[in-house]
Amino acid sequence: MHLINLHQSLQTKIYQDLLNSETIQGMDYTSFITNTNETTSFILLKELYRISSIKQKKLKNIQLENVEKLFLGIVNQMDKWSTNDIIELLSDSNKNKSDFQNSLYLKTIIYLCDKYPEIIKFNINTISTKVSGLLHSFKKNILALAEICCEKLLSSCGNKDLNPFIPDVIKTIKNSKYTDEAIEKLAGCIFVQNVELPALSVTAPILRRGLRGRTSELRRKSCVIIDNMCKLIEHPKEIIPLLPELEPLILECTINISNPEAREVSIKCYNTVQKLKKIKFTLKLFTNDEIKDIIIKSYEEKSVEILNNVQLDLVSKKINYMIKADHFVKDDWFIIMKKYINTPEELLQNIFDKLGKVNEIVEDRYIDEEEGVDLYKGEFSLAYGALTLLNNTFLHLKKNRFYGLLGPNNCGKTTLMRAIANEQVDGFPKRDELKTVFVEHEIEEREVGEDDKGYPIFNIDLCGIDWVVDCCNNVYHMEPPVKRDSVEEVMQKIGFGNCKKYPGMERAADAEMGVTTYSGGWKMKMQLCAATLMNADILMLDEPTGHLDVDNIQWIKDFLSDFRNNGGSIICTSHDSAFLNEMCTHIIDFQNRKLVTFREPGDNLLEKFVAKYPEKKGYFELKNDVIKFEFPIPGPLNSKKGTKSILKMNNVTFQYPIRDKPTVFDISLTCSLSSRVAVIGPNGAGKSTAIKLLIGQLKASEGTIWRNNTARIAYVAQHAFQHLEKHITKTPSQYLLWRFAGNVDKENEDFKADKDEEVVNSKYYLHKIELGYELRVARTSEQLRKQVTLKKILTRRENKKAKTREYEITLIDQPKDLTVYVELKVLENMGKIAEVNRFEEKLAAQQGMMNRSLTLKNVEKHLTGFGIEPEQSSHTRISSLSGGQKVKVVLAASMWMCPHLLILDEPTNYLDRDGLGALTKAIEEFKGGVVIISHNREFANAVASERWIMEKGRLRKEGESVANIDENKITKDITPDTVKDAFGNVIKVDKKHQMTVKEIKKEIKSLMKEKKIFKKKGASDEVFDLEIKIEELQEKMEELKKEDN
User: Fold this and answer.
1) How confident is the model at residue 597, as a pLDDT?
2) CA dist., res. 535 & res. 543, Å (int)
3) CB proximity list for 738: less than 8 A, separation 6 or greater
4) CA distances (Å), origin 649, targets 670, 810, 835
5) pTM
6) What is the pLDDT confidence band of residue 990, given thresholds at 50, 70 and 90?
7) Is 99 in contact with 139 (CB distance < 8 Å)?
């Protein structure tokens, strides 16, 4: 029977006779489709679906089975671009569907999910609403089909990251009581793929319930998930279809959540959504008639007659489905147009070009029409691993320009410059056509040969001169090759010394010394020597002022100005706003995976750029509204004398063995909990050397250095990456878990100076007493033969009578179970004070880490407080992080043990403006001491009230740190100015500046009770500390009584 005849039979309402088993059995569906057009096939589907709506009592079971077989058989023979028509047919507005219709609907969707998941995924949002309703059916067969259909539908989203989450979605749709659990699991999903509309459609039902949740925490987590997913969206069009449902719920959270912190999170989420909506892009939604008109006009332009006008409507509809599904595959378009309207070859490309470029982000292309020679003009994309950094962006570069490259950490600034230097940007001229040199602080290692023993020699093992020769000749393949004499001459002009040629001339950096001895600033100057010798066309610099003092910043400005005036162009990334404001002729900003070029005539270009883009005002203000660092509270200093001092240096002088004169002279200084110090001075003045002496990385040649052994000190080196260089294959979380395993800071031990030389004042022997042993001074030859040596310090205790500390120790060549308690002075006389200091430091570090266990969850939470999200902290290797992210990891690691003093050497290098603002505000709120070395005046002025000025190795002080803790004030706690209630409302606190005698008595009584409790527990350290506090309070009480008298 021919299909058209079957259709006529249905229309004449003889379907009851037609749909018996004999008529349908053996029917060849393939021949139906091939012998008729698709339009007729779809008419038949409509009629079959109409039949399925008839009350089941009027149709026999065998008839219903045959309707289903015929319906599914025809669906099987239709192409995938008919899927949308089938879904529209099944999703008609009639809500009162029969069980048979519901069953037919679910079976058809299941079939389409299996056959055409790439089409179904764009209809998830529409279909899921219907299927979700059927998950509550009371009919077992419908419920079973709905569960299968829902799983297949959600799995068709194409995002494998969501697969483990799909069972929770189904469970939550069936019963809303599982919403909290589902949101929690979704929050733990790690997204590797970009998030597209289908994936968002899977999560949307759960997120809608989460945003309507009863608790602030549930709504907060839902907002966090939406905020994070929005950041993974490749194109705004992915979320726009879902905004009518989600946006009002997010807005409601920003108004109605009572918890202030959760409310801030919801506001951040809402702002992220608004930012996506503001992105300019062409979201062209064609109608079928518009597509039909475009096809007809293309035929008319070429004076070609449409051979099959009847099928033109069908083609227009299928092409529209392709556009909505983002399916811009030429071959598939051509197949459809050839099959139905027999489009000539010359028209295929023309039609595709008119309809195929839609949904693109609009880019304001800057064409440089000012005078100058073009260096590059083109379009390209840039990716790093699976992350798209730039997508079909346009760039126009000319000679004699200074381009400031702007953007937040991890947007791809350094990656772009490195890609240009490595000839990885499509269409960009190769090095032999356009000499591009990339100058960065951390020089990439490269093997250049072998030594006599067969060990590899790396370029960083070379001296400065040889490094430049190798770079010019072996990396950039200069012709003719650069000679050593030419390099020596250029390096001398730039400021390098040469100890071989001029032995008496001493400079901060020597051309004949190894590259590893150079500071970041001198490494940059060395690379500029290479660029000078190569006559580079484009010079690319990463944070050129990062390690430079005022004089050297002026030097680099002059160098770059001369380079530009001589025909060169510069591409520079820097967070030094003043430098960019003065130097830039053009600004290139990373915005939504595009490069936006900004140019206005005149000076102060960065100011003009910020005026146009007010959201960029962070370049001139240090704020933490975008990112916030959370420094932990250091806790009290366990000092017997009650002092708040942490470090002291008295008349310290230091001289490097290779130098003819000391680097620092006669330095005296003090650090305490209230310190806010900026160490400033020119390069080579001895700033970093003084700090290394202070923390024990170097040993003083003269003078004394005292450290409060109960204090915890965090240090971030000038070249912060040195903390990570041995761990680049680890994730940040793995690095912290390794570093602090066993409650010991392994890195602190690694960076310590060599062990102190033993100064032995007395020798001791082991003497048997009634209850064990004790150490006594060896005086006779017999006693000297029994001399013992310290093996290890195990514990310590407090001798209450003598009010001294005693250490339990083991001895070399003695039984393991033989331990002795000795006083501190005994260990000092034995020359073991260094071991005592290390033991005390270890105890202090453990005290700082007692408040939290070293677990992955806690580490991730800690890193989040420094702007490192779980995706980067636990799923990204350190080697893949940007420079700014690495600095954040180092900073977070240094703060893990809740230090009392934070020492930062050039902390602003690589941090973007948002990170710099976050660091500034965190230091302001920190309850411990801070010492920074920085050439960034803006940052130093913002955080420091005291300055240590280093000039030619000598130190002078200016200003004074304002104490945030009054050392003379005896109070139970350091009372804040304000406190917050359970809802985050700020309440002013009336402070008590001076305790009365009555209050002191009450406090002593309270401490006596605490002492009694700790004594029962055997906590000797706590008992000792409480005794000291009680004595101090008693002394204070006596003083007050005398004053009253």
Assistant:
1) 93
2) 21
3) 727, 730, 746
4) 7, 33, 21
5) 0.56
6) very low
7) yes
**Element at 706 (helix H, strand E):** strand 702-707
Identify the weakest region by mean pLDDT among 171-180, 623-632, 812-821. 623-632
Q: Which of 638-652, 791-805, 907-921 has the highest mean pLDDT?
A: 907-921
pLDDT > 50? residue 248: yes
Task: Indicate the helix (H) or strand (E) that contains 132.
Answer: helix 124-134
The dihedrals phi and psi of 136, each to the nearest 5 degrees, come to: -105, 15
Q: Which residue has the higher pLDDT, 546 or 412?
A: 412
- d(Cα 544, Cα 315) in Å, to the nearest integer? 58
3-state secondary structure of 114: helix
Rounded distance between C-alpha atoms, residue 632 and residue 650, angstroms: 30
Q: What is the mean pLDDT of residues 963-986?
A: 42
β-pair partners for 790: 811
Whether the CB-CB separation of 106 and 145 falls below 8 Å is answered with yes
Are 240 and 197 contacting, i.e. CB atoms less than 8 angstroms apart? no
Q: What is the residue whose two structure tokens read 């998950």?
A: 135
Helix (H, G, I), strand (E, B) or coil at 929: strand
Torsion of CA 602, 607, 611, 616, to 10 degrees: 140
Sign of CA dihedral 313, 315, 318, 322: negative
Which pLDDT band holds residue 405 (cuts at 50, 70, 90)?
A: very high
DSSP characters for 588-641?
A: EEEETTEEEEE--SSS-HHHHHHHH-GGGGGGTS---SS----PPP------TT
Structure tokens at 656: 């490097």
402-406 and 569-573 strand pairing: parallel
The DSSP-derived string for 376-421 is EEEEEEEEETTEEEEEEEEEEEESS-EEEEE--TTSSHHHHHHHHH
Q: What was the pLDDT predicted at 538? A: 94
Residue 963 has pLDDT above 80, yes or no: no
The DSSP string of 216-281 is HHHHHHHHHHHHHHHHTBSSGGGTGGGHHHHHHHHHHHHHH--SHHHHHHHHHHHHHHHHHHHS-B
What is the DSSP track for 509-524?
SBTTSBGGGS-HHHHH
H-helix or E-strand containing 956? strand 954-959
CA 1003, distance to chain mean position in Å, is 47
SS3 333: helix
DSSP strands (E only) in 761-888: 764-769, 772-777, 790-799, 804-811, 820-823
**64 confidence band (pLDDT: 50, 70, 90):** confident
In the numeric block, which tokens belong to residue 961?
């740190």
Integer CA distances (angstroms), 764 to 603, 788, 808, 811, in order: 76, 6, 15, 11
Give one word for 551, left, alpha or beta, with left for phi > 0 and alpha for psi -120 to 50. alpha
Rounded distance, CA 317 to CA 699, Å? 81
According to the model, what pLDDT value does residue 970 have?
Answer: 33
Q: Residue 573: helix, strand or coil by DSSP? A: strand
The DSSP result for 857-895, as a single string, is: HHHHHHHHTTT--HHHHHHS-GGGS-HHHHHHHHHHHHT
Residues for the chain: how many in total?
1045
As a whole number, mean pLDDT of residues 550-572 equals 90
Output the CA–CA distances (angstroms, integers) from residue 221 to 865, 873, 898, in the order listed. 16, 19, 28
**Between residues 492 and 28, which one has the greater pLDDT?**
492
In 3D space, the residue among 153, 152, 151, 191 whose CA is nearest the CA of residue 168 turns out to be 151
Coil/strand/helix, residue 106: helix
Q: From CA 254, how far away is CA 270, in angstroms rounded?
A: 8
